[in-house]
C-alpha cells in the first residue's frame, strides 16, 4: 500500500520524538508499504516564529510571514530524512514547492490550486521514503505560501489525493477523534468511525484535531483518513462516508471554539444591498463570517451581529469602520469575551428536540445564550467564554456521550 503519514507538532516536538517517528515509518516500510511522510514544525515553533515577526511589526507583510513560518516545517522534514537515512533507509525531504503544491496568493491562508506530484512519484518509484514539509506551497509566481494554522493536515490529505494513496494517517497526541476534546472532558469517548460531514462540522466549529479544510478535501477526494496517536499502537478513528457507519448516534460530538469574536453593528442604514456590500467586502478579504443575525432597529435602521475568528478581527474591524466613516453604520462594538459551543450529529436530521435539550442544559446551568445558529447536523451557541468548559461538560452529559 501507499500510505501518507502526517506527524503533528507534538509528535515531532523534540529530537527523541523525531527518532520515534523515524522508527514508526521504518516499521511501516518493513511491512512492505511505501510511505510519504508529511511533517509539522516542532510544537511551539510556529508560534515562536509568529512572535518574532510581531516583535518588529503589528502588520508584517503576509508574504514575509509565510517565508518565515514555512521554515519550521523544513527543519523537521530534513531532520526526519537524516534520521531515516541513518537507520539505513533511503529517504529524502522536499519543500512544498518540490512536492508540486501550487496555491493561490492569499498569504497565510492560501488555498491549493493544483498539485503536480511528478518529483514525488519518481522518488517513490525508486523506492525512496519522501518526507514533505507540511503547511506550505508556492503561488503561481513562485512565492512561498502557507495554508493556514493546522495546515499540515491539508498538505497530507492533498498529497494523498494527488498520489492516489491507499490511506492517509494523521498522527497526533490523542488516540483518535473523541466525543469532545479529552483535555476539557476526561470522560470523552473515542469514536471508532465518524462521517466526513460530522468531522467537517466539528473541525470548523473548533475541534482543532483536524484542520477543517483537510476534512473537506478528504470528503471530496474520497481519501481514507485515519486519526491516531504517534505515541501508542491503539487503533485510531476512521473518517469515512456516512453510509459506512451502521450505528448513527443522535449527537456524535461537542466542539468548542474559544477563538471567536463578536461584531455588533447598530444603526445600519436600511437599504437594499447593504448586507451584500458589508459581507462582500469581508469576503473579498477572506474573512470567515459565521452566525449572522439581522434584527430591526428602533428607527428605520437595522442591526447586524456576527462572529469572526479572533485572528481576523483586526481586518474585519478596519472594514466595518470604513462603513461607519461614510455614515452607513452608526455604532460598532467588538466583544472578545465570547466563545462558541456546538453539538454535532447526523442523527439530528431525523430527530426533533435536540436543540431544545441544549438550550435547557444552558438554562439549568444558568448560562445565558447570546446567539444561536443551526444547520441540518449542528446547533451552535455563543456564550461567555468563562462558561466554556462548564457548557461543554454539561452538554456532554446531557447527550449521554460519556456512557
Ligand atoms: P497536531 O499538533 O498533531 O496537529 P493538534 O494540537 O492540532 O495536534 O490537535 C490535537 C488536539 O486536538 C488534541 O490534543 C486535543 O486536545 C484537541 N481536540 C479538540 N477536540 C478534539 C476531539 N473531539 N477529539 C480529539 N482531540 C480533540
Ligand atoms: N505548524 C503549523 C501550525 O502550527 C501547521 C501545522 O502544524 O499543521 O499551525
Ligand atoms: Mg493540528
Quick synopsis:
By secondary structure, the protein is an alpha/beta fold.
> What ligands are attached or bound here?
adenosine-5'-diphosphate, aspartic acid, magnesium ion
User: In this structure, how is the largest beta sheet organized?
Assistant: 8 strands, mixed
Structural class: alpha/beta
**Count of alpha/pi helices:** 11
- What is the count of β-strands? 20
Q: What's the mean pLDDT score?
A: 96
Summarize the helices and strands and which ones pair or pack:
Blueprint: E1 2-7, H1 15-30, E2 34-39, H2 45-56, H3 62-86, E3 91-94, E4 101-103, E5 112-115, H4 118-125, E6 129-133, E7 136-139, E8 144-146, H5 152-162, E9 167-172, E10 193-195, H6 196-204, H7 212-221, E11 225-229, E12 237-240, E13 253-257, E14 260-268, H8 274-284, E15 290-296, E16 302-309, H9 313-325, E17 329-335, E18 338-344, H10 354-364, E19 371-375, E20 378-384, H11 388-398
Parallel strand pairs: 1-2, 1-9, 2-6, 3-6, 4-7, 9-11, 10-12
Antiparallel strand pairs: 4-5, 7-8, 11-12, 13-18, 14-16, 14-17, 15-16, 18-20, 19-20
Helix pairs in contact: 1-3, 2-3, 5-7, 6-7, 10-11
The chain binds adenosine-5'-diphosphate, aspartic acid and magnesium ion.
